[in-house]
């Protein structure tokens, strides 16, 4: 029984089998919350604004980041939804929410990790 020689081009094929390596691949994000808790992110855009529905601000446990494009909410595609319709879907989803998002390149550098540097400087306005 013979061993196959090592073929470097197989590495490239292996890369394609892992969709998470593609930054444009949609990702499922599942969030849970307790009854009186907020979801921890804000929406931006919608069909009525003629823009893609995206995450504006997020403190959603490191799973969502500002700029992530929301493609579906609990299985319902967001392409035709107005901002208000998408907000309602999210509000009506109870304590678990499933989103399909396309991550923005560079958005993974969450804003949560930014820390102030040096002392804050305050300047009083001149009267």
From TrEMBL:
Residues 1-28, 107-127 are annotated as: Disordered. It holds the Pfam family PDZ. Keywords: Cytoplasm, LIM domain, Metal-binding, Zinc. One of its GO terms (cellular component) is Z disc. PANTHER family: PDZ AND LIM DOMAIN PROTEIN ZASP, PDZ AND LIM DOMAIN PROTEIN ZASP-RELATED. This is PDZ domain-containing protein. Its main location: cytoplasm. It comes from the Eukaryota. It is found in: Cytoplasm. Residues 116-127 have a biased composition (Basic residues). SUPFAM superfamilies: PDZ domain-like (SSF50156). GO terms for biological process: actin cytoskeleton organization; muscle structure development. Residues 28-105 form the PDZ domain. Residues 1-13 have a biased composition (Low complexity). GO terms for molecular function: actin binding; muscle alpha-actinin binding.
């Amino acid at each position: 029984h013979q061993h196959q020689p090592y073929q470097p081009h197989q590495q490239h094929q292996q890369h394609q089998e892992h969709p998470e390596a593609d930054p444009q691949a949609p990702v499922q994000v599942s969030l849970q919350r307790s009854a009186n808790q907020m979801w921890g992110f804000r929406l931006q855009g919608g069909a009525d604004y003629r823009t893609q529905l995206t995450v504006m601000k997020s403190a959603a446990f490191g799973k969502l980041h500002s700029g992530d494009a929301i493609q579906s909410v609990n299985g319902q595609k967001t392409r035709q939804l107005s901002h208000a319709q998408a907000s309602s879907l999210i509000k009506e989803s109870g304590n678990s929410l499933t989103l399909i998002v396309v991550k923005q390149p560079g958005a993974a550098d969450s804003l949560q990790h930014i820390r102030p540097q040096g002392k804050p400087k305050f300047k009083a306005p001149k009267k």
